[in-house]
Write a structure and sequence with these properties.
homodimer, mainly alpha, Arc Repressor Mutant, subunit A, two-stranded antiparallel ribbon, 6 helices, 2 strands, DNA-binding, DNA-binding transcription factor activity (chains A, B), WH-like_DNA-bd_sf (chains A, B), Rrf2 family protein (chains A, B), Tscrpt_reg_Rrf2 (chains A, B)
Amino acid sequence: MARSTNTRFAVAVHVLTLLAGVDDDRVISSEELADSAGVNPVHVRRVLGPLREAGLVTSRAGARGGWELALRPEGISLGTVWRLLQGDDPVLGLHGPNPSCATGKGVQQALTALDVAIADALVAQLERFSVRDVLDGDIPAQFTSAV
Amino acid sequence: MARSTNTRFAVAVHVLTLLAGVDDDRVISSEELADSAGVNPVHVRRVLGPLREAGLVTSRAGARGGWELALRPEGISLGTVWRLLQGDDPVLGLHGPNPSCATGKGVQQALTALDVAIADALVAQLERFSVRDVLDGDIPAQFTSAV
DNA sequence: TGAACTGTAATCACGACGATTACAATTTCG
DNA sequence: CGAAATTGTAATCGTCGTGATTACAGTTCA
């Protein structure tokens, strides 16, 4: 089984969808979100950290504290979420450099270029959908991607 | 740093490019390929296994044995290589199921659908290039993906 | 026959990831 | 004010995927 990317994106989508489904003025604690997503509260806070810094969600400490969306669900695209969590990390696995071999140099460059292209295509697909779409179940099980 | 996919694809591209660059009737040993790619000979054989079964390369045991391309470099698309090595493994990381929560169900379905879309888009990008392109350095460092 | 390979299983070490624990800081409420 | 609830964050731990390494049987050529 090939290594897939980590589950932060999945957890983020899950949690954001939950937050999108509650009343506007209600906040939800990390523990509640974590229980629903089947992960650890600390993990939830770590995942939501970057999203808070980007202004997608807000958090409140103290009793009756918790999390809520800072934007409307339709204003949060999955591409944005991906970018915030994955940053510029490569999608392809590039093995170590091999400076001695000329062909190796070329291969490295090709793979790097491909990685950029693939990352763009990946985000482009995710950009087509928002948290609202996930909440409404509006992501078809099968659809033709731009091939 | 997020977990990227494994390096099998990168190794495969590297090795295939090397094989594409030699005379037609010359075979190269796993050790030679491994040294050039900076990996282990056993790893090379494991990576090339699926490609051999798919008819992309052939191997010969015994003295003066080794590997050679079974197809012309322009006939080996990177998309094919990716599919052979990655199979149907998910690109997105899907966290464990959460049957108790209705929203969770929907999120799982959405993520699964997205994973298919993304995998398709990824392969579509790779399909645009062949081993020949890598060998010739014909993969531009920057190009607009279909956004 | 012996050397040079492939094919493959078994084991090992490393590293990423997420769980868990712990604790300081913040906020609400009685 | 003080207790309870909750975030923010560091530190540690266990698990798992990955590739290196070793070992060895089978194959082929000289």
